[in-house]
Amino acid sequence: MSSNIDEVISTITPSLESTNDGILKILEYEMQNDLPEFINQLLLDSKMMIILSQIERTKEGKYEEADDVREKSIESTIAQRVTIERGIKPLEKKLNYQLDKMIRTYNKMLQEYEAKGNDDQQNASVNNDNDDSSEESEDELAYRPDASSLMSKASKKASSKPEEPIQEAYKPPKISAMAPPTREETKNKPSKKLQSMEEYLRENSDLPMEEKSIGVNIVNHGRGGVKTDSERRKEKELQTYEETNFVRLPSTMTKKDKYQKRKELNNTFGGEDWSMFNNSRQLSEGTSRKRKPNSVWDKVKRRK
Known about the structure:
mainly alpha, about 300 residues
C-alpha cells in the first residue's frame, strides 16, 4: 500500500512543480501588463484548490504520524469532498442546463431568421411574376368591346317597362305542430282515494302493518276519537319542517281554547272528569236550574 502511495506522490510532485512555475509566470505577466482584476471566482478554480488541498493533506499525513494532525487532515478532506459533491456539482449541472438552453435558443433564432429571409425572397419573386402576368393580361384586354355601353342599353330597356305589383294568395307560414304546455303538478299529484274504503281495507287485511305506540293517536282521552291518517301525516309534515328549519310554528289555539284546556286539565284525574264537585251552585235546591227572566219587563223590574 505504501509503495503505491509513493508512486502516486512521485508522479504528482513534478506536476505540482510545473503548476507552481506556471502560476508564478502568470503573476509576473499580470504585474507587468496591469490586467483588470476579476472579483468573481470560477468553479474550476475552487475545484482545483480543493483537490490540491486534499493532496497536501495526504502528503502531510504520511510524513507526520501525529494522531491529531491525521484527524484534522481527515476531517478537512471529508469537508472538501462534501463541498465538491453537494456544492460544486449541482452548480455545474444548473449552469450546463442554462448554457445548453441559451445555445438552443440562439440556434433556433438563426434558423428562423434564415427561413424568414428565404420566405421574403420567395415572396418577392412571386410578386414580380404577378406583376408580369398582370401586365400581360392588361395588354390582352386592351382591344375588348366596351361593356359599359351594353349595360346602359339593358338598363334603358328595363326602365321602359312599368313595374306591376305581384298579387298572389296569402300563404301562412308553416308552423310545426306542438303539444300544449302541461303542468307538472298534475303528473306528480297523488290519486285521490276514498278514506273510508282505505280504512276498511286496512282493518280487514291480514298483512303486517306499522302502528304507532298505544295511546298516541287518541284525542282528548278518548272523547275526541282517534287521529286519522291525514291528521297524522299533517303533524309529521309540521314536525319535519320545524326540525329542518330550526323554528317553532305558532299554535292555532286561542286564549279561550287555552283557558278551557287548562280548566279541563285541572278537573281531570285518572282519566275521569271530576268537574261536578267543583260546581258553585247548591245541590240541595235540586238539579233543575232557575230560568232567568228574558222579557223586557222582567229586566226593568230586576234593575229597580
